[in-house]
Amino acid sequence: MKVPPLSLGRKLTLVILSFSALMLSVVFFSVISLGREYMQRVYSITGENTRNILSSVDSAFSGAMVIADLLSSDESLQRSLAMLKDGGDEASLEESRGRILARISSTPSSSSFIVDISLLTGSGDIHYGSGLGLSPIAIEEASGMARESGGAAVWVGSDEGSIYLVRTIRRLEFLSLDELASLFIRIDAAGLIESIRADMSNAGIGLALAYSGRLLYSDYPEGVLPPTLDAAVWDADGVRCFVYRGTLPESGFSYVDLVPAESAFGSLLIRIAGTLLLLILIPSAYLLVLRFMLRRIISRVNALKERMDAFENGSYKEGGTIGGHDEIADLNRRFDSMVKGYRKAENDSYNRLLMLKDSKIRMLTEQINPHFLYNVLDSIYWLSQKYQAEDIASMSCSLASLFRAAVSSEDIVPLSRELELVASFVSIQQTRFTGLIDYSADVPGTLMQTLVPKFSIQPLVENAVKHSVEELGVATTISVRCFNREESAVVEVSNTGSSFPEDIAAQIAEGRIRSSSGRIGLKNIDERLRLLFGEDKGLEFMNVEGAAIVSFTVPWRSDAQGNSGR
User: Fold this and answer.
1) pTM for this structure?
2) Shared domain check, 278 and 350
3) 524 domain-assigned
4) Number of domains the chain is built from
């Protein structure tokens, strides 16, 4: 079963739908790819934000370490602690406690989250702030770790969200290094972290701080354990989170932070869904508009096709127009112009056929008198031969040849035949004007079978004789030359002793020259050439170095072409 060909509209619609589907596929996969890349970038940016948050936390811990160093090396505090350790009366001991409290209360703090500074001595505890908040057992364990650290600070955590810096203060006088007190600096880590995260857009759900393998702080939700694997994404109680690990540069704390991925790019999926919806709606609207435009274009193309079909069927009528200024309207205008040109050519061809028909009728009508004259001239020729009048015999023979050509029904003859007529005419004129006419013909043998209108060269030669020898009485040299020019043959007749008027071509075009006027047959030859070979094939005139030259162009025929047509 033969499938009918698709119409132009269906082809265009199919192409557009295929292109739209391809573009949607490309965009869909591009969005997915960009989503993955966006997630990676969000992970990186969120990690940077986490490091910024923890750097603020780290500064509070480093501030506590500075306070511990200041208090441990303070001379006034050393003396007061030494007096408490060495003992004395109650008044001096109370005075020492006052000086110690005044000193720790005047210690500058770089963080408002350092909520308590306490000194634990053998003579009692001295603290400034909200208190330790540790059990006696926890205090004893922390003090023991501080003693074992050899004077270095240790960090301990608590269940209430505080982190403690613990350090043993030793006597520096005489480098005795005996223990004077245990220093506890309490930092509200939960409040510090909550305060910093409140200003951040990617608040985490869990942060764990550890030091030397000890967990100092953790705000993971109940039942959620810190991730132990080195994973970038982790599900915390059903919440997908980014996992960040690292070490704080100043305090040396290691941390594990969980940031919900949804908080980092929660609107991304909504945006992707909205983008895909737009990518569906916009092409759909575009296709509707395009369908309307295509239907309009196809209807105008069909209208032009109907006009062409009407022209082919012979029912074409002028006046039908296709509006607009686009290519289809331009095609319609060009088609109208083509139809007008075709009809003009058709009319010209019809008129040309009528003219040829009329000329044949006139030729048949006028054959009677030339035929009678030809018989008379033939009789004169035989009488001249009888009485040995060679000049009369030659003229009679040449004139008879001319009349014979005039009587023939041929309208187009080979160039060789036309040259024979020219030779007969020149022979008669040379007898009339002895010694005044010098004639030559230069024609290649390959051009001899080229077809030219009958009596197209002879009148040009006759015109040369008339305007030089007859009118002026001067000798003339007449030359007939023929040569190739591209795919045409050029016939050129030149003579000395006369020249053409500068406006000779305009006189012929405007009808100011008649066949009976001084320029014999020029208008007749020009019209015949244009009718037979085209409007651009008329006579051409020029005056060059004392010679008048007239030429015309005809289609070229080789000897082989001429022989094959015989």
Assistant:
1) 0.44
2) yes
3) yes
4) 3
